[in-house]
Amino acid sequence: MTKDTRVPPDLVIKEGIHGEGVFTKVAFKRGDTLFQMKGKIIQHPTRTSVQLGKDKHIEDYTAGHINHSCTPNIKVNRAKHSFECIVDIDANEEIMFDYNENEESLANPFYCECCGRIIVGKKRQEALKKKRNKTFHLNENTLK
What we know:
Layout: E1 11-16, E2 19-24, E3 33-36, E4 40-42, E5 50-53, E6 56-59, E7 67-68, E8 74-77, E9 82-85, E10 94-97, H1 99-102, E11 110-111, E12 118-119, H2 122-143
Parallel strand pairs: 7-10
Antiparallel strand pairs: 1-2, 2-10, 3-9, 4-6, 5-6, 8-9, 11-12
């Protein structure tokens, strides 16, 4: 089998509980940098891009396989274009980040399997919260 040079040496892409995901080959400590993203910088989100700033997204092969979690073990360091551990991570553990914490808006929103909430990105999540609160206040006033 040919080694895939698009994937950092301490990581592997393989089948997990949510389809393909990125798993560690070795243990990492909190604060460690897992890898630096390399790829084409684009202005809009795609299903596989990671946001680095306003209208700045990167298409990195490995990052495009990292799944979402509401209890993430990594985060994006936008300044360094990298992923950093926010907890200790064991070997053979899947790495995941919270899309709603990093992305302003997702190209392909979805319902999270672990919590049931919709994953749409920060901006859209805030808009949904405002809409729910406004609906609640209207319903509350209607009852009086």
